[in-house]
Structure formats: C-alpha cells, structure tokens
Amino acid sequence: MNNFTVKPIGTVHNNDDGTFIEVYEHYIPALQALEGFSNINIFWWFSDFDDDQSRSTLQAEQPYKGAPEVIGVFATRSPLRPNPIALTTVDVIRIDYERGIIQIPFIDANDNTPVIDIKPYTPSFDRVETPGVPVWCSNWPNSTEESACFAWEEVFNF
After folding, report:
1. Which molecular-function annotations from GO does this UniProt entry contain (predicted)?
2. Cβ neighbours for 6, distance < 8 A, ≥ 6 positions apart
3. From the CA atom positions of the chain, what is the Rg in Å?
4. How many whole angstroms separate alpha carbon 126 and alpha carbon 102?
5. I need a surface site. Which of 5, 24, 31, 108 has the fewest CB within 10 A?
6. Half-sphere exposure of 56 toward its Cβ, with a 13 Å CA cutoff?
7. To the nearest whole percent, how much of the chain has pLDDT over 70?
8. Angle at Cα 152 formed by Cα 149 and Cα 158, nearest 5°?
C-alpha cells in the first residue's frame, strides 16, 4: 500500500475579521494568474475529524431527511470518512498577491482549518449541465448561489 504526504499550503480563516484563505509565504507564487477566475475549488482537511474512529466510519444512519436509512460516506459530504478531505467551491472576492490572502464570502470549514490545495473553477471540467441526483436530495439547490439562502436545517437529521 502506498503512503502519501499531504502538506498544507495555507489556512482557512473564518472569524470576526471575515472569511479568507491565507496561503503560506512559500506558496504565494502559485497564486500567479489566478485573477479573472470568479470561483475556485478549495480542498481542505477535516482536521477536527482526523482520528481513527472518524476514519473508520464507512456508513451513516440517515443523515438527511428522506434519505435511505443507511448511507455510505461516499454518498455524503460528512467529515467522517477514510481520508478527511473536503472540497468547497467558493466565489473569489479579492486576492492580495503580496500577502497571499484570498477573500471569500463563505466556506464550510472552521477557523484555522488546513488548506491542502486550490484549483480554479472552470466550467469545462467542473460544471455538469444536467446532473442526476437521488430523489431524496432532488429538492436541494442547483447552485452555490441558491445554497446561501436555502433552509439546510430542514434537510439534516443532526
């Protein structure tokens, strides 16, 4: 079995100062030419769930209303998974190239969460024109923009 080394390239800041990604100084040159992309994909580490119990959880008991009674973690966005990797697509508000700061409106990660990669959102690779989803989540929003004002508390069983 192969082992992998994942090194954080920055940190999520989600606090009273706002929401932004701080890219570590060593990785600031990697931001070159990111301007012009309205959205980016942030890959981050569910660091609060990086333990043996969380990594060994393979199924969840009906985390969503109307979902099957048991769901495999690969059919959820749960932090409990074999490798606690998360992905969030975000809007880019502003980039400070000198300080390595990307201001964003929102991310579903806690303050000081490690960021492991950033990729530009490109419709040719990231957008699916007519995605299919199970019936139990077919009434969920069709975009990140719609998700902002969706009543998610009515969906989750936790």
Report:
1. methyltransferase activity
2. 45, 116
3. 17
4. 20
5. 5
6. 3
7. 100
8. 155
Tokens of 82: 């074999």
Sign of CA dihedral 43, 47, 52, 57: negative
User: Which are the contacts of 151, defined by CB distance < 8 A and separation ≥ 6?
Assistant: none
Where do we find the tokens 């990697």? 30
Lowest mean pLDDT among 36-40, 93-97, 154-158: 154-158
Query: Residue 107 is encoded by which pair of tokens?
Result: 């991310």
Mean pLDDT for the chain?
94
Contact 4, 102 (CB under 8 A): no
Please state the rounded mean pLDDT for residues 115-121: 98
In contact, 102 and 27? CB cutoff 8 Å: no
Kindly state the tokens that stand for 132: 């299919």
Helix (H, G, I), strand (E, B) or coil at 134: coil
